[in-house]
TrEMBL record:
UniProt KW Cytoplasm keyword: no
Task performed by this protein: Protein-arginine rhamnosyltransferase that catalyzes the transfer of a single rhamnose to elongation factor P (EF-P) on 'Lys-32', a modification required for EF-P-dependent rescue of polyproline stalled ribosomes.
Identification of the protein by name: Protein-arginine rhamnosyltransferase
Catalytic activity: dTDP-beta-L-rhamnose + L-arginyl-[protein] = N(omega)-(alpha-L-rhamnosyl)-L-arginyl-[protein] + dTDP + H(+)
Transferase in keyword set: yes
Molecular-function GO terms, alphabetical: protein-arginine rhamnosyltransferase activity; translation elongation factor activity
Family: Belongs to the glycosyltransferase 104 family.
UniProt entry keywords in alphabetical sequence: Elongation factor, Glycosyltransferase, Protein biosynthesis, Transferase
InterPro entries: EarP
UniProt-listed Pfam families: EarP
Organism from which the protein derives: Shewanella cyperi
Length: 385
């Protein structure tokens, strides 16, 4: 008899995105689809940054209904083939697992969960099998924005919860206070910043510090601050959560890192979000607020192709003037063009109202009829038939 559990293997690369995506998926599969999930992770310490409830020293633990296992090489905890085996982002599965799959009387449905992209070719590759030694198929599961792709991770009821949160400004003020971010008034502009290093960031800070309105930039300790060293009173390593750095009309706040639900609420609470990678990029869209996407850099500037594909989609039904302005802002930020990013930010400020209206409509248009987890469960059912 086949075991009904699912295994997800995730290798943490150099950031939080791979584990961020797989953790969200694992949680949703368990809570909304009643699936028993084993999540194998090779770096629990990094995982602990976005899941403070985790004990990185434990080889096996239950967190929010998911069994989280330390993935060591060689594998030192037993793997038993279940109904589904997911290798996240083409991580190389342990030999012991591949052997167990070959030996299983009923092998699991084996999937490679790929990175999200808005490019056209994704539709053609989603669901394609690749024949593996032992006569088993491995399927490419491609997240994406169209109905013919694997979809986008989005929990049931998320938009309603977010709308209720945003309907009462007391929620954001209470959150800022809870996070130890002092001195923020309800009418101030609040911007979250979770980017990689870029020269665009000090340029924007300069603009904000000289503006008419009070601006608060909420920045977790890490890569964004590496680009702001010249503005800091101490080395980046010495910054402490809650610390404030006053620069004219701008206050830089050192943001404590929270779990993913906390980060979502932060995105809902800000007027503008600067996000990166894959997961925060999607969550900024679900926050229904305007954003800049600092895309993860790839060889030969391939990331700019991915950025272009997304921008085209996002701007599809946006008035051309506003679309151009938002595209230029994103491009100049990603290309570290200090003067251009300042100019485009100012243009964008003058289109704030329609841009916000677009950001509010976008999640509904982008999600289509079903989310990734629901499509994935259906995909597995179809391929096991
Ligand atoms: C700031 C913050 C983030 N987070 C979470 C949100 C996301 O799940 C995660 C960050 O992931 P991302 O936004 O994807 O950005 P990232 O840069 O950390 O991850 C990247 O890693 C590379 C290896 C991948 O190739 C990229 O595509 C990308 O996923 O951290 C929290 O939970 N709490 C926080 O306070």
């Amino acid at each position: 008899m086949q075991h009904s559990h699912w295994d997800i293997f995730c290798a943490v690369v150099d950031n939080y995105g791979d584990i961020g995506v797989t953790w969200r998926l694992a949680r949703q599969l368990a809570s909304e689809h009643g699936i028993e999930v084993n999540l194998w992770v090779d770096d629990l310490r990094s995982f602990g940054h976005i899941l403070p409830a985790l004990d990185p020293k434990l080889p096996c633990q239950m967190v929010e209904g998911i069994r989280v296992l330390q993935w060591n090489t060689p594998l030192d905890q037993p793997y038993v083939a279940g109904e589904v085996l997911i290798e996240a982002f083409a991580c190389e599965l342990p030999d012991e697992v591949k052997q167990a799959v070959r030996d299983a009387a009923m092998p699991p449905c084996w999937l490679n969960l790929e990175y999200l992209s808005a490019e056209d070719w994704v539709e053609g590759c989603h669901g394609l099998p690749s024949f593996q030694p032992g006569g088993i198929n491995k399927y490419f599961y491609m997240p994406g924005f169209s109905a013919a792709t694997g979809g986008l991770i989005c929990e049931t009821g998320l938009f309603e919860t977010r709308a209720a949160w945003q309907a009462d400004s007391a929620n954001k003020m209470a959150l800022f206070q809870k996070l130890g971010l002092g001195g923020i008034q309800a009418e101030d502009k609040v911007i979250s910043v979770f980017s990689y290093e870029t020269e665009a960031l000090p340029a924007l800070c300069e603009l904000w510090s000289e503006g008419q309105q009070r601006v608060h930039a909420l920045i977790p300790k890490g890569r964004s601050f590496n680009s702001l060293k010249a503005l800091l009173p101490c080395p980046v390593e010495a910054l402490t959560p809650g610390q404030r750095i006053e620069l004219g009309m701008l206050t830089l706040h050192v943001l404590p890192m929270t779990d993913q639900q906390g980060y979502d609420r932060l995105l809902w609470s800000c007027d503008f979000n600067i996000v990166r990678g894959e997961d925060s990029f999607l969550r900024a869209q679900w926050a229904a607020r305007p954003f800049i996407w600092h895309i993860y850099q790839q060889e030969e500037d391939y990331h700019l192709v991915k950025l272009e594909a997304f921008m085209q989609l996002y701007c599809d039904n946006l008035a051309s003037e506003i679309a151009e302005c938002w595209r230029n802002l994103n491009l100049s930020f990603n290309q570290q063009q200090a003067t251009a990013v300042q100019q485009h930010w100012q243009y964008m400020d003058s289109h704030a109202v329609p841009l916000l209206a677009h950001a509010r409509q976008w999640p509904i248009d982008a999600l289509k009829t079903t989310d990734l987890a629901t499509r994935l469960v259906q995909f597995v059912k179809n391929s096991l038939r």
